[in-house]
């Protein structure tokens, strides 16, 4: 089979990380991978190269404006956007994990390999509306993640978290599969947009089986988004996994699931207007539940990673509010929010690595006074937390602003009010992070322990934190450039929205 | 230089941030240098603001350019200084260097960072005062919280974390709900220009207008703070370091009143009139309740904090009167409060730095030990009470006058009730003064007052002298400070369709015929004759 250049162009962004993922285990065969800096360097270099090549290729595609496709895989602008998004997240994860795994004393090449497979799966997942391909993508990015959560096998909590995530994730995947099967059974096609047209044509739009199928599909997505009530895995999985992996999961999984959901529900299922309306009301309800549960539970956490996990649940709520508004501008706001969210959350998890917190030592008390000791990281932390809380002039504010503006514009004033009250509540627990960093001095015991330990040295994680802070600031001051030049074009050319 | 000539306001607003960021980048060991640089910079900004603004008293200075359009709503980069904010801007640029100098030695650690945050705060305050686009205003309004949060939380008293969080969340809560109202109205108006939004609002059903006004009013009332939304203030004021308290009282509270004057009232005139009575009721409660609570305080700083509630109640009462004299009184009272309460906090800070206590019971006979300090404290106390010839008198008199003559059926009763607040003000201030300064010296070794051996030094006198001069100046010749706001206030009330009689007090010749038409107006006209002296003072 010979491929045309255009088909190659669609495939290459996926081939690069997949190739890297296959090569890295060969290097990891060496027993000295944990001790030899050269072998580690080659492994991490390969991973970065793979992600970087994909990223480079995608930005190239983006600037030329080409939208190639390979059968069901459509590398359109939205898919390119996703690829760039995932690529940046993966690159930051790789850089952070160099420092983190070194601190943990647990360097295994297969983690990187799994990460690259996951990246491939994510790109696949967000660039298709064919159900089989979609499911392939879902599994390809989920299975490595289950393993990555439990990657530090030396800690029993880690394995426990990974197992929990795997079991719940498997249930969600099978539900997703069942939903697809129902739609396929009634329409006779795997292509979701064609299926929607057929169902509409046959007058099956409100058939209970179709509704059940759509609802099961939605469940699969919402599980990945970690929306209430499919959120229980989130805190355990984040707590169990290494910081960079938790950051990657919180950003990339959520982002890809939101983008794929955007493709399927408002996109492909557009002909099935009635289903769309029903799903929108379901989403409205779940978005509210997500906001309330996520924020209120985050309030009482003492562990920073669990707090960040619940915070990521609550951010899923804000993102879902965009679906409730359901206007092109709201989708634009969601993509914008995702970009800023990527920087904020990768930055926040990167901070934990940069501060040298390992294992279970991630309570607020472990952060005390660190902001003054490491002023650059402290300022970045302030930027991330205030931005997560949605305080201007940082990027997070503009994301919320765009979504709430559309929400109010479409008449959902009540939901917007719940949304702002939720972000008020969230401000409290984000401030707690800053309280620990700046407003509290470390306990005498912690001081004594800290003087015994070697100085934390995490230059790469620190660098990613700085870059993330710059992105958040850019989101606050160059908002139009980002929104019109990047997210809007992804929607216009990708989904054909926003003409 | 040509850029500076065409963008003086941009420079005034953002230059402090640039300097502040620079100071924060300096290493901690250079804190003393940073503090000096910060002070010199702030002084330079004050001098520049004086020279630029005083040269332009005739016409407003405006900078307006389209900034960005996001999700279909254009946002303007719009700054302006006109009659309504002219003196508030100068008050801000004046208080910042003064406070820096006044609290020169109060802080011991991280002084460079503190100076940097202070300058960031100055940007927030000036930006909020000058912004003429509601989105732009909102950005400054919220961003202002961040430096203040850290100033209270890092350098504050024992309960600083609680106070800082409470301050932050309280204010944020009000403004987030306000944001929803703002978005609703922006969607209707297609932008954030206050004039366009006001027009769009007037086309909405009255019930919706009322809701929108309430959302605006709550956000501003929290900042003022109006009873019962004042509970953050005592905590924040007491826990904040002296410099933070001065700026909180001096400028941040003013932004609430200014918000009413600039946005809430002009944009929803009829809804504002509709809610005049509830606002007046809450103001009267704030005046009396704030004074009563101040009376029973044992901590001088807390007493001053509650007196702020009482004084800012006067501001709101003046605004609720919808008369020119009441509104002018409110503007003057905002400046008064900025000067005299700012001075009180500075004085309390100075005595705290020496004695390390603020409990009234720990003091006694301070007048003997610190005569100069006592003299300054006395003048400021009298100004806070509202003694004639000091600024406090003029503002409160105009406000009460305006309320009495407002033509609202409740006006006279509320004016009488509020007058009792002036009386109570004299009680708590003088009682406190008596216990602290007169009487026998407290010989208790634990009270800390035996540290009070040094009177004010030259630096402290240099800080207090301009404030005392202003107190007297504003008391004798208030026209300097309200002449510029008269035209905008008259126009504002005319647009608010306040009945003609309400503008009568200041312009008898113009409005007398109109006053005869309405029976209610006739009645008020009689009263106005009694108030003639006050009216002439303005002209």
Please characterize this protein's 3D structure:
- The complex is a heterodimer of chains A (499) and B (539).
- Chain A is mainly α and 499 residues long.
- Chain A contains 20 helices and 2 strands.
- In chain A, helix 13 packs antiparallel against helix 16.
- Chain A is globular.
- Chain A starts with a helix and ends with a helix.
- Chain B is mainly alpha-helical.
- The C terminus of chain B is likely disordered.
- In chain B, strand 1 and strand 2 form a beta hairpin.
- At the A-B interface, helix 13, helix 16, helix 17 and helix 20 of A face strand 1, helix 6, helix 7 and helix 8 of B.
Give the SSE layout.
The complex is a heterodimer of chains A (499) and B (539).
Chain A: H1 5-27, H2 37-64, E1 69-70, E2 73-74, H3 77-104, H4 109-125, H5 131-149, H6 156-187, H7 192-201, H8 208-225, H9 233-240, H10 243-268, H11 273-299, H12 304-325, H13 328-354, H14 370-373, H15 375-388, H16 395-409, H17 413-439, H18 444-452, H19 459-477, H20 479-495
Antiparallel strand pairs in A: 1-2
Helix pairs in contact in A: 1-2, 1-4, 2-3, 2-4, 3-4, 3-10, 3-13, 3-19, 3-20, 4-5, 5-6, 5-10, 6-7, 6-8, 6-9, 8-10, 9-10, 9-12, 10-12, 10-13, 11-12, 11-17, 12-13, 12-16, 12-17, 13-15, 13-16, 13-19, 13-20, 15-17, 15-19, 16-17, 16-19
Chain B: H1 2-6, H2 8-25, H3 31-54, E1 61-70, E2 73-81, H4 86-102, H5 111-130, H6 134-143, H7 145-155, H8 160-189, H9 194-202, H10 206-223, H11 232-239, H12 242-267, H13 269-274, H14 276-295, H15 300-321, H16 324-355, H17 366-369, H18 371-385, H19 391-404, H20 411-437, H21 458-476, H22 479-495, H23 508-517, H24 519-530, H25 532-538
Antiparallel strand pairs in B: 1-2
Helix pairs in contact in B: 2-3, 2-5, 3-4, 3-5, 4-5, 4-12, 4-16, 4-21, 5-6, 5-7, 6-8, 7-8, 8-9, 8-10, 8-11, 10-12, 11-12, 11-15, 12-15, 12-16, 14-15, 14-20, 15-16, 15-19, 15-20, 16-18, 16-19, 16-21, 16-22, 18-20, 18-21, 19-20, 19-21, 23-24
């Amino acid at each position: 089979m010979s491929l045309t250049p255009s088909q190659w162009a669609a495939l290459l962004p996926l081939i690069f990380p997949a190739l890297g993922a296959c090569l890295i285990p060969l290097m990891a065969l060496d027993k000295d991978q944990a001790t030899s800096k050269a072998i580690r360097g080659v492994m991490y270099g390969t991973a970065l190269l793979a992600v970087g090549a994909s990223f480079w290729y995608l930005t190239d595609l983006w600037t030329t404006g080409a939208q190639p496709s390979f059968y069901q895989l459509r590398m359109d602008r939205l898919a390119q956007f996703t690829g760039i998004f995932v690529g940046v997240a993966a690159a930051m994860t790789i850089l952070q994990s160099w420092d983190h795994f070194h601190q943990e004393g647990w360097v295994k090449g297969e983690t990187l390999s799994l990460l690259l497979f996951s990246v491939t799966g994510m790109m696949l997942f967000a660039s298709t509306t064919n159900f089989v391909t979609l499911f392939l993508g879902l599994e390809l990015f989920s299975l490595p993640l289950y393993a990555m959560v439990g990657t530090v096998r030396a800690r029993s909590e880690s394995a426990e978290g990974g197992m929990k995530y795997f079991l719940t994730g498997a249930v969600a995947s099978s539900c997703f599969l069942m939903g697809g099967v129902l739609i396929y059974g009634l329409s006779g096609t795997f292509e979701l947009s064609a299926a929607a047209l057929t169902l509409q044509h046959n007058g099956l739009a409100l058939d209970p089986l179709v509704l059940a199928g759509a609802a099961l599909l939605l469940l699969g997505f919402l599980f990945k988004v970690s929306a209430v009530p499919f959120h229980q895995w989130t805190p355990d999985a984040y707590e169990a996994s290494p910081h960079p992996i938790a950051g990657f999961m919180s950003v990339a999984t959520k982002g890809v699931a939101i983008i794929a959901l955007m493709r399927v529900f408002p996109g492909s299922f557009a002909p099935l207007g009635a289903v769309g309306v029903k799903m929108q009301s379901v989403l409205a309800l779940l978005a509210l539940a997500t906001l309330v549960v996520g924020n209120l539970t985050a309030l009482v956490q003492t562990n920073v990673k669990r707090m960040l996990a619940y915070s990521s649940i609550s951010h899923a709520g804000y993102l879902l509010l965009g679906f409730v508004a359901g206007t092109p501008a709201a989708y634009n706001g969601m993509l914008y929010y995702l970009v800023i969210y990527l920087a904020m959350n990768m930055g926040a998890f990167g901070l934990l690595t940069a501060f040298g917190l390992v294992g279970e030592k991630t309570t607020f008390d472990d952060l005390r006074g660190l902001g003054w000791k490491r002023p650059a990281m402290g300022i970045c932390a302030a930027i991330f937390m205030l931005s997560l809380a949605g305080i201007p002039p940082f990027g997070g504010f503009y994301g919320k602003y765009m979504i709430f503006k559309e929400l109010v514009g479409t008449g959902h004033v009540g939901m917007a009010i719940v949304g702002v009250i939720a972000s008020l509540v969230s401000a409290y627990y984000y401030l707690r992070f800053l309280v620990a960093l700046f407003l509290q001095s470390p306990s005498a015991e912690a001081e004594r322990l800290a003087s015994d330990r070697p100085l934390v040295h995490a230059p790469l994680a620190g660098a990613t934190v700085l870059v993330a802070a710059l992105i958040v600031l850019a989101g606050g001051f160059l908002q139009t450039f980002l929104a019109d030049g990047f997210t809007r074009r992804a929607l216009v050319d990708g989904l054909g929205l926003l003409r | 230089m040509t850029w500076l000539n065409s963008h003086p306001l941009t420079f005034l607003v953002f230059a402090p941030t640039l300097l502040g960021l620079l100071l924060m980048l300096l290493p901690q060991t250079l804190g003393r240098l940073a503090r000096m640089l910060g002070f010199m910079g702030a002084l330079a900004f004050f001098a520049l603001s004086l020279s630029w603004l005083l040269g332009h008293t005739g016409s407003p200075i405006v900078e307006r350019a389209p900034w960005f359009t996001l999700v279909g709503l254009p946002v303007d980069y719009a700054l302006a200084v006109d009659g309504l904010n002219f003196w508030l801007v100068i008050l801000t640029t004046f208080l910042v260097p003064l406070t820096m100098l006044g609290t020169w030695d109060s802080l011991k650690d991280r002084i460079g960072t503190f100076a940097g945050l202070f300058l960031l705060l100055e940007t927030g305050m000036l930006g909020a005062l000058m912004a003429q686009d509601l989105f732009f205003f909102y950005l400054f309004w919220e961003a202002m919280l961040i430096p203040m949060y850290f100033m209270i939380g890092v350098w504050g008293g024992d309960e600083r974390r609680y106070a800082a969080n409470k301050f932050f969340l309280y204010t944020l809560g009000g403004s987030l709900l306000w944001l929803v109202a703002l978005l609703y109205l922006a969607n209707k108006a297609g932008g954030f220009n206050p004039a366009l939004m006001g027009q769009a609002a007037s086309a909405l059903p009255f019930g919706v207008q009322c809701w929108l006004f309430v959302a605006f009013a709550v956000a501003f009332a929290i900042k003022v703070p109006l009873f019962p939304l004042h509970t953050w203030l005592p905590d924040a004021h007491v826990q904040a370091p002296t410099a933070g308290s001065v700026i909180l009282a001096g400028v941040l509270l003013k932004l609430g009143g200014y918000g009413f004057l600039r946005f809430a009232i002009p944009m929803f005139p009829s809804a504002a009139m509709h809610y005049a009575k509830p606002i007046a009721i809450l103001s009267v409660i704030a005046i009396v309740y704030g004074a009563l609570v101040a009376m029973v305080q044992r901590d001088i700083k807390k007493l001053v904090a509650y007196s702020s509630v009482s004084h800012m109640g006067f501001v709101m009462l003046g605004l609720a009167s919808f008369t020119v004299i009441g509104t002018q009184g409110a503007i003057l009272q905002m400046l008064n409060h900025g000067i005299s309460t700012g001075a009180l906090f500075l004085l309390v800070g100075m005595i705290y730095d020496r004695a390390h206590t603020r409990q009234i019971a720990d003091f006694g006979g301070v007048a003997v030990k610190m005569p100069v300090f006592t003299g300054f404290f006395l003048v400021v106390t009298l100004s806070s009470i509202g003694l004639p010839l000091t600024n406090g008198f003029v503002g409160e008199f105009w406000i009460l006058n305006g309320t009495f003559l407002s033509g609202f059926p409740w006006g006279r009763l509320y004016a009488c009730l509020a007058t009792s607040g002036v009386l109570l003000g004299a009680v708590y201030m003088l009682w406190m003064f008596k216990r602290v300064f007169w009487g026998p010296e407290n010989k208790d070794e634990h009270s800390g007052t035996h540290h009070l051996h040094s009177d004010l030094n030259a630096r402290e006198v240099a800080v207090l002298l301009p404030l005392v001069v202003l107190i007297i100046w504003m008391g004798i010749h208030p026209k300097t400070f309200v002449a510029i706001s008269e035209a905008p206030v008259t126009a504002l009330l005319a647009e608010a369709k306040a009945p003609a009689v309400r503008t009568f007090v200041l312009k008898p010749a113009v409005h007398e015929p109109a006053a005869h038409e309405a029976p209610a107006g006739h009645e008020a006209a009689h009263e106005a004759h009694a108030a003639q002296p006050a009216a002439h003072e303005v002209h």
